[in-house]
Q: What sequence folds into this?
């Protein structure tokens, strides 16, 4: 999952991504958006979560804004929409 700002720039370092089995609070995976790589470099590393299920998932993304933490939820994502792809999420 690649988290971007509303303009499509990868400026959401520190955003938290959590993936739950739809309709439950069963956590399938989580990660933090990291744009740091090494000395004097930067990369755009998506958060990788291995689903291992055919069921739909809910994704919660928490970003930091000037006003504080902001929560965004994507509900009922099915594997056929995201399997083998990088899901790009644009936040405000």
A:
């Amino acid at each position: 999952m690649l988290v971007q700002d509303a303009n499509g720039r990868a400026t959401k370092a520190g955003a938290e991504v959590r993936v739950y089995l739809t309709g439950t609070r069963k956590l399938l995976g989580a990660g933090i958006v990291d744009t740091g790589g090494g000395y004097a470099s930067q990369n755009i590393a998506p958060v990788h979560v291995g689903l291992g299920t055919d069921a739909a998932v809910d994704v919660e993304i928490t970003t930091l804004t000037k006003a504080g933490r902001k929560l965004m939820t994507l509900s009922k994502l099915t594997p056929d929409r995201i399997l083998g792809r990088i899901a790009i999420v644009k936040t405000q």
Q: What stands out?
A: Strands lie at 2-4, 16-21, 27-32, 34-36, 42-45, 57-65, 68-77, 88-90. Residues 8 and 89 are 9 Å apart (CA to CA).
